[in-house]
Design brief:
2 domains, five-stranded mixed beta sheet, CFAP298, alpha+beta
Length: 283
């Protein structure tokens, strides 16, 4: 099987398994589906945690700090037994209780972990079916916590229904349309209407790093020779060496003359076996 490692400029990414006989059109469509499903998880997971703590979202015109609304607007807020005021003022504060909140956190963590970029290092390929199962688990947990459903303006409901619900969110601009997406490997584009083998050959034991981006953007930037972590480590090493050389240049001490390596007769005494002999009274 051919392993496609889809990598984003920020280091995020995932692994996907395909074959050399797969059409480029199908491969791009499949990668876009996983790409967009991961975006949904990125929005849903933290939102589910907030839902467990502070309940559903308010309408836009009603958003604001509850204590301010009560004090200055004489608002009569509905508070259930699990009420916890939302510091952001976006949610009602009426959570589902500790047990159901724990369930929301658990399914959110599970989905987030499955889609995390660490799966690339673990060499675990993602599948759309598995991601959809994680989203279904989150949907089930939400239904348990709020049987009457969430309001239509809640981000969770919008993202849960379809990828179109991501519009207007922090990841809305990253949504990938299969019709307007391009796949690049080693500076070469996967042309639609061709097969994977037309670009990668017929070796099924191939692994490549790919870039998925919107069509018309041109070839992606080349990968840096070293990672950001390696670059920082190198800079720290060179800075440390530079400081050491600076101190050495500024030092006027000649303490090194008392060092064993500066004694011209040290090797001779060592070979003769008299290196440890000292004059009486000296240590």
């Amino acid at each position: 099987m051919v392993i496609i490692s889809v990598k984003k400029p920020d280091g995020d990414g995932f692994l996907y398994e395909t074959t050399t006989t797969t059409s480029n059109d199908d491969l791009i469509a499949q990668l876009c589906e996983i790409w967009n499903a991961r975006l949904r998880v990125r929005i849903l997971a933290p939102s589910l945690r907030e839902l467990g703590k502070h309940g559903p979202m308010k309408k836009i015109e009603e958003q604001g700090l509850d204590e301010v609304k009560e004090k200055y607007e004489d608002a009569n807020l509905i508070k259930n037994e699990f009420y916890v005021a939302d510091p952001s003022g976006l949610r009602t504060g009426n959570g589902p209780g500790h047990e159901l909140a724990a369930t929301l956190n658990r399914v959110a963590d599970d989905a987030e972990q499955y889609c995390d970029k660490s799966q690339v290092q673990a060499r675990k390929n993602l599948t759309l079916e598995e991601i959809n199962d994680k989203i279904a688990n989150m949907r089930g947990a939400v239904m348990m916590a709020f049987p009457m459903g969430l309001p239509e303006w809640d981000t969770i409901k919008l993202a849960m229904d379809s990828v179109d619900g991501l519009e207007g969110t922090g990841v809305g601009a990253e949504v990938m349309d299969p019709e307007n997406a391009a796949l690049w490997v080693a500076g070469k584009e996967f042309m639609k209407g061709q097969l994977v083998s037309d670009r990668l050959g017929k070796n099924e034991k191939t692994k490549v790093i790919a870039k998925l981006q919107k069509s018309g953007s041109g070839p992606p930037q080349r990968e840096p020779a070293v990672s950001e972590e390696e670059r920082k480590a190198m800079m720290a090493h060179y800075f440390k060496k530079q400081e050491e050389m600076k101190k050495l240049a500024e030092s006027q001490d000649d303490d090194y003359l008392a060092s064993a390596w500066a004694d011209s007769g040290n090797m001779k005494r060592s070979l003769q076996g008299v290196g440890d002999i000292r004059a009486p009274g000296l240590r």
